[in-house]
């Protein structure tokens, strides 16, 4: 049987238009039965930042999804996420998601209040993860990703969004254990198997292009995508913005594992024709196809040092840096530190220790780190 992905146009974050488009996308994808169920809605709140930056899932998109789920009879709805470095006082208000959660009668959940262990017998690299304990209390987890480019994984969508279920800095050691994108992708797929999200709905009304996921540029895509299969959704979403979807590690590795689908041809796009909505000037990240094949051959540990050296490096721009220290706190490799220079302190980095996880780039609040 084909796996459906609903693909629907939506020009703005106007509530009437959003409500209609979300309803239609879910219907086209085969629907979701939430009657009497407790749900966890997991938007992407990489940084609790202004919605105009397109870093987080848009709050009005979250509002429309909550209203849809309430209309369909969900008994309780929780909303939350945990940024990589969760500052004291993080409350989801800058992104506007906390406000729409409370205004609609859903419940905001802080992922750091308790942890639980989830398991997968079929995990390749990880058989268990410690995630937010709300996962134990709900019947369904629904991923609400933002369409974005990603320095490490090239693209972030419904699958990568699940990494936020790991509270705060507990994510960082995974970058050290799985420093290349092949292994990191395999680990993310282990998490997907353990979480088993029931459904995914993507905010692609305005995506992020260029140096995502935290420092790229807003780009109108004017679409909403929905599917019961997170991998199928990501394959279609990455195709829309011009990627060969098989150059995205999580897509490629998921098909190898047969995670609900074995081949792209197993996907049926309902609604807009993919060819009509493809964008040809989206600023993408990643490597050309032949480089990807070489990378595939060279992902083994013995070649990791070579791989590490040829990857782009984080450069810390002294003039822009506000010395907040967040890049230092999040670096699980202890590869950067403050040093005293003639003009005051600056961030120094040891590129031999740096594993190119780009967490520092994601977290920097003032775009003072460039990946070159
Ligand atoms: S310096 Fe940045 S890219 Fe390098 S390991 Fe630390 S957080 Fe990752
Ligand atoms: S996160 Fe950015 S602003 Fe803060 S210390 Fe690091 S480079 Fe400077």
Feature tags:
single chain, 372 residues, alpha/beta, Rossmann fold, Alpha-Beta Plaits, 2 domains, ten-stranded mixed sheet, two-stranded antiparallel sheet, 13 helices, 29% helix, globular, binds iron/sulfur cluster
Provide structural commentary.
By secondary structure, this protein is α/β, with parallel strands linked by helices. It folds into 2 domains: 3-277, 3-Layer(aba) Sandwich (Rossmann fold), CATH 3.40.50.11440; 312-371, Alpha-Beta Plaits, CATH 3.30.70. Helices cover 29% and strands 23% of the residues. It has 13 helices and 16 strands. The protein has helices spanning 15-28, 59-71, 97-103, 134-137, 172-177, 181-195, 230-240, 249-257, 274-277, 289-297, 304-310, 326-330, 359-363, and strands spanning 3-9, 38-43, 76-79, 107-108, 115-119, 128-132, 140-144, 146-150, 154-156, 199-209, 217-227, 267-271, 314-316, 336-341, 344-349, 369-371. The longest helix is centred in the middle third of the chain and has 15 residues, at 181-195. The N and C termini lie far apart (44 Å). Bound molecules: iron/sulfur cluster (2 copies). One iron/sulfur cluster is lined by residues 316, 321-327, 347, 363-364, 366, 368-369.
Strand tally: 16
Euclidean distance between termini CA atoms: 44 Å
| Associated small molecules | iron/sulfur cluster
Strand content is 15-25%
Biggest sheet descriptor: 10 strands, mixed
Count of alpha/pi helices? 13
- Tell me, what is the CATH class of the largest domain? Alpha Beta
Query: How much is the average pLDDT?
Result: 93
CATH topology-level fold name of the largest domain: Rossmann fold
- Our Rg estimate from Cα atoms comes to 20 Å
Kindly state the percentage of residues in helix. 25-40%
Poorly predicted residue ranges: none
Secondary-structure arrangement, i.e. CATH architecture of the largest domain: 3-Layer(aba) Sandwich
**Which outline best applies?**
globular
Taken in chain order, the helices and strands follow as: EHEHEHEEEHEEEHHEEHHEHHHEHEEHE
Structure class: alpha/beta
Q: For the record, what is the CATH homologous superfamily label of the largest domain?
A: LarA, N-terminal domain
Number of discrete domains? 2
């Amino acid at each position: 049987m084909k796996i459906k992905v609903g693909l629907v146009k939506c020009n703005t974050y106007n509530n009437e238009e959003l409500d209609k488009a979300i309803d239609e996308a879910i219907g086209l994808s085969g629907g979701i039965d939430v009657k009497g169920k407790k749900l966890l809605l997991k938007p992407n709140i990489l940084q609790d930042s202004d919605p105009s930056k397109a870093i987080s899932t848009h709050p009005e998109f979250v509002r429309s999804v909550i209203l849809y789920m309430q209309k369909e009879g969900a008994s309780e709805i929780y909303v939350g996420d945990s940024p990589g470095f969760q500052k004291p006082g993080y409350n989801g208000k800058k992104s506007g998601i906390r406000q729409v959660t409370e205004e609609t009668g859903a419940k905001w959940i802080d992922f750091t209040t308790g942890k639980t262990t989830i398991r997968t017998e079929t995990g390749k690299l990880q058989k268990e993860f410690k995630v937010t304990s709300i996962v134990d209390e709900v019947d369904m987890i629904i991923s609400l990703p933002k369409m974005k480019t990603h320095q490490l994984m090239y693209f972030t969508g419904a699958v990568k969004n699940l990494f936020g279920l790991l509270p705060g800095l507990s994510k960082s050691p995974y970058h050290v254990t799985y420093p290349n994108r092949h292994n990191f992708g395999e680990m993310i797929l282990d998490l997907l198997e353990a979480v088993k999200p029931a459904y995914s709905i993507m905010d692609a009304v305005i995506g992020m292009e260029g140096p995502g996921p935290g420092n790229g540029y807003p780009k109108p895509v004017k679409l909403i995508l929905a599917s019961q299969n997170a991998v199928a959704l990501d394959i279609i979403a990455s195709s829309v913005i011009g990627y060969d979807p098989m150059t995205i590690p999580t897509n490629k590795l998921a098909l190898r594992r047969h995670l609900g689908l074995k081949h792209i041809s197993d996907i049926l796009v309902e609604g807009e024709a993919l060819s009509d909505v493809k964008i040809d000037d989206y600023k993408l990240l990643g490597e050309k196809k032949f480089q990807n094949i070489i990378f595939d051959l060279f992902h083994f540990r013995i070649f990791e040092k070579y791989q590490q050296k040829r990857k782009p490096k984080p450069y810390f721009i002294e003039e822009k840096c506000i010395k907040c220290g967040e890049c230092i706190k999040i670096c699980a490799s202890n590869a950067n530190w403050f040093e005293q220079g003639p003009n005051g302190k600056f961030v120094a980095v040891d590129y031999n220790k740096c594993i190119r996880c780009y967490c520092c780039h994601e977290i920097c609040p003032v775009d003072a780190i460039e990946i070159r």
